[in-house]
Amino acid sequence: ATPLALMMGTGTGAKRGILIKDADALERARRIDTIVLDKTGTVTEGRMALTSVVPAEGETADEVLRIAAALEAGSEHPIARAIVTAARPEAGVPHNPASSGAQTEVIGDSLTRVTDFRNLEGLGAQGVVDGRAVVIGRPRLLDDWAVPLDPQLRGEFDAASARGETVVAIAWDGKARGILSVADRVKDTSAEAVRALTGLGLEPVLVTGDAEEPARAVAAEVGIDRVIAGVLPADKVDVVKRLRAEGRSVAMVGDGVNDAAALAQADLGMAMGTGTDVAIEASDLTLVRGDLRVAADAVRLSRKTLGVIR
Ligand code: ADP
Ligand code: MG
């Protein structure tokens, strides 16, 4: 294609809400045959709401939520925000900076003190809340701490997962204290976007750090057959590498810090404009409004601008 055609391509892109870093990106977009989609924040809104709290025997739901929210105030994860918002509906958003050491957090009437907060990327969070060593996150994290879920909590956990909810467990002082479920919504535009992408001959693959059941539920809702769940942030990039090793030309769409390496590794990285700066910096294209349908527009635009593959 001529430089003029490429410039027209990038200009038209901008009008549709696609920011293109360089003309090479359009050239690569034209060749894509596989599109890896992050689940949370890309296919779904990424705004989760708490749906239930189940305390272990001897605990109350209020206490489980209070301790969970105190700890999660230090995290920016959508699950953390849902828990904090449920505990303090009037506050709306957490305000504790994750980086600082000792913090004092007012929740309800009680003064809760959080120290030694640590975000465990793709797993959960840990810290000391009112002198208790607390960990929250996927059950695998509790396994690492040698804290098993008792059969009652395990049963509740599996039931909520089967409903398509995302479930996390909380433990302190060496005992599992409860589980908390959150649910997210699939974006209104996602199913149409997947239809457009498959219509262009691309195979969509859903990838997520979330568990198999909620991932399958979302995939079924939008029409994706291939799901890779339970992927740690560091391993998302390997999913892209593996697909490329199969000889595919791979696009990746994501929004999170945990997607950045995979976005950079893909033949074409597309970031949600509503996502993190890290994801945007790692990508070739930005979908300004966070509308997945625009990913299909980008591929269509590249084919139109540069002609069909010779
Ligand atoms: P995704 O790939 O869908 O964006 P993440 O990699 O961010 O998901 O998280 C994977 C899993 O790790 C979550 O489903 C949850 O079980 C757990 N997790 C991550 N961060 C937190 C947190 N702050 N609190 C509780 N659980 C968390
Ligand atoms: Mg995400």
Walkthrough of the structure:
This protein is α/β, with parallel strands linked by helices. It has 13 helices and 14 strands. The protein has helices at residues 3-16, 23-31, 39-43, 61-72, 78-87, 139-144, 151-162, 190-199, 212-222, 233-245, 260-265, 277-282, 293-306; strands at 18-20, 34-38, 49-55, 103-107, 110-120, 124-129, 132-137, 166-172, 175-183, 203-207, 226-228, 250-254, 268-272, 285-287. It has a 7-stranded mixed sheet with strand order 1-14-13-12-2-10-11, sandwiched between helices. A 7-stranded antiparallel sheet has the order 3-9-8-7-6-5-4. The longest helix has 14 residues, at 3-16. The two termini are 12 Å apart. The structure holds adenosine-5'-diphosphate (ADP) and magnesium ion. It is found in: Cell membrane. Keywords: ATP-binding, Cell membrane, Membrane, Metal-binding, Nucleotide-binding, Translocase, Transmembrane, Transmembrane helix. Belongs to the cation transport ATPase (P-type) (TC 3.A.3) family. Type IB subfamily. Its main location: membrane. This is Carbonate dehydratase.
Descriptive tags:
binds adenosine-5'-diphosphate; seven-stranded mixed beta sheet; seven-stranded antiparallel beta sheet; 13 helices; Carbonate dehydratase; binds magnesium ion; alpha/beta; 310 residues
List the helices and strands and how they pair.
Blueprint: H1 3-16, E1 18-20, H2 23-31, E2 34-38, H3 39-43, E3 49-55, H4 61-72, H5 78-87, E4 103-107, E5 110-120, E6 124-129, E7 132-137, H6 139-144, H7 151-162, E8 166-172, E9 175-183, H8 190-199, E10 203-207, H9 212-222, E11 226-228, H10 233-245, E12 250-254, H11 260-265, E13 268-272, H12 277-282, E14 285-287, H13 293-306
Parallel strand pairs: 2-10, 2-12, 10-11, 12-13, 13-14
Antiparallel strand pairs: 1-14, 3-9, 4-5, 5-6, 6-7, 7-8, 8-9
Helix pairs in contact: 1-13, 2-13, 4-5, 8-13
Adenosine-5'-diphosphate (ADP) is lined by residues 38-40, 72, 75, 77, 79-80, 122-125, 136-138, 166, 168, 208-210, 233, 256, 258.
